[in-house]
Amino acid sequence: MTERAPANIGSGRQLFVDDHWIAKIDGATRRLQSPIARESVLQGDRRWDHDSVAFMRTFRDGDRYRAWYRCDAVSAPEVMNPRWSAYTESQDGIHWEKPDLGIIEFEGSRENNLVWMGPGANMAPFRDDNPDAPDEQRYKAVVRDKDVFAMASPDGVNWKLMQEEPVLTDRPFDSFNVPFWDAQTGRYVIYTRGVDGTGIFKGGVRWIRRATSPDFIHWSELESIETGEVPDEHLYTNSCVVYKRAPNTYLMFPSRYVIEHTPDPTWPHGNGVNDIVFMSSRDGLHFDRSFKEAILRPGLDRENWHERGVYMETGILHTSPEEMSMYASDHWRYPTTRIRRYTFRTDGFVAVNAGYGGGELVTHPLVFEGSELEVNYSTSAAGSLRIEVQDTEGHPIPGLTINDCPEMFGDEIEGAITWNSGAALGDQAGKPVRLRFALKDADLFAFRFRPTGS
Questions:
Q1: Hey, which end of the chain has fewer CB within 10 Å, N or C?
Q2: What is the pTM of this model?
């Protein structure tokens, strides 16, 4: 097995979105999962948003889900190319309300859910969990005109520019630029549309860049994210998030633009078609691209088969213990433009899968805290999962062997593993160990160590 220094994971949850933990694998493989299309949750049904709803940023905030989205009313004759920002909220992530906020006047009335009418567009808000952030700046955002401007708000609905001057000027920014507070690095991060230093696309394709900041005003130079290879695909609208259940994991859902494929040559807005791909990172700069297939296809709906037909919105909501909700645009550029909900199994972006013939996975060495092993897994009726704890040389630890582990079968998000010997897993806490997973007709999504019964 490949030798690597033991990594201290504490009690943090570990996903298989990349091969970081895999020292040896036999008869099993990592498989990208596909989301399930659910209901349409947001439509353009107001005068100010009837031409499009898009570029939604959503997160849980206290006892509710909150979201901000771009709305267009291109038929409004008095405004040139209007792209406003509106607010919506939900108790369950399915039914979204557009409250009358009384903040901005539109056509003689303040009975609307508008929160920003410029300067700038494509507003991307977040709750600032920086412990040093003042209450009047508890929410922050960026908007883009030709450049990027910083904004702040005490409540997420009353917004002001933090300064008149832009904070990023190294164009282009004509996409949805995503900022957030990164607790792992203790800095603000933004992901933007990307080109290289010569002013052309990186490697000849559209790409994604990152910058960091200590104060949301002064930013480092934008640098292109890395994927371990020369990019050969156009990537838009990165939709980057930190996955809250595994905060050391950055997930990205870029829109992949394939200009060589044009389903309808008469489409007036340009050539090409797009889908959504999946990438992950452990440092926010170097991203794993082991999955080249789409995580979200345009699907059976022909009105999604054109350039920029589908965009993944930004944010992952845990709408039940077993389910994560994400959102994507439908029918972009059509009168029926809307945002649809999609669901994944909790932690279920990638599974280590073995068929009926069985397979095994052995991890690199790790050091943990806790006394109980928790796994997110699913088997068939005939399938099973068993786990062994080994020393760094790959020798089974007495009492924690495969033969001591009863067959686990079923479907659990946080299943607890026990061994028939009664051996105490907690005795190995603080020591470097490996895990051996034996699967039969089963999927393994994640694992972590925890105190007993937690």
A1: C
A2: 0.95
